[in-house]
Design goal:
With about 120 residues, the chain is α+β, with helices and mostly antiparallel strands. It has a single domain, classed as Nuclear Transport Factor 2, Chain: A (Roll), CATH 3.10.450. The protein is about 30% helix and about 50% strand. The longest helix has 15 residues. The chain starts with a helix and ends in a 6-residue tail after the last strand.
Length: about 120
């Protein structure tokens, strides 16, 4: 596994243990973060403070949200692809989940861009 993939696996591990400050520490100060508006936490976010708002929206929408990481791989210079299954309980509803592909752009050991693509039609786990 390459250095960039290891960085992203570390980010997923930090999220799994609820250590959002550790995730944000892996980001560039000017990171661009994009999550589809079809998700309760979706939107366009800029900078570490913006990504902090994204994670606040995750906590506001989900009473719990877990990621099952299927794979993490490098896809070229600075690109890392994560394939995940997200599942949990929405605060205003019951169990929910979705499949997602995450595309990370890494430069100088920091995430400078995150793009999330989702499959809302997959089964809920």
């Amino acid at each position: 596994m390459g250095t960039n993939a290891a960085l992203i696996e570390g980010a997923y591990a930090a999220f799994a243990r609820g250590d959002i400050p550790a995730v944000i520490d892996l980001l560039d100060d000017n990171v661009e973060w994009s999550s589809p508006a079809t998700l309760p936490q979706g939107g366009q976010f800029h900078g570490k403070a913006g990504v902090g708002s994204f994670f606040q929206a995750v906590g506001g929408a989900w009473s719990d949200l877990k990621l099952d990481v299927e794979s993490v791989s490098e896809a070229g210079a600075g690109l890392v692809i994560g394939v995940v299954r997200a599942g949990g309980t929405l605060r205003d509803g019951g169990p929910s989940g979705y499949g997602a592909t995450h595309v990370f752009t890494v430069q100088s050991g920091k995430v400078v861009r995150f793009r999330e693509y989702v499959d809302l039609d997959g089964p809920v786990h």
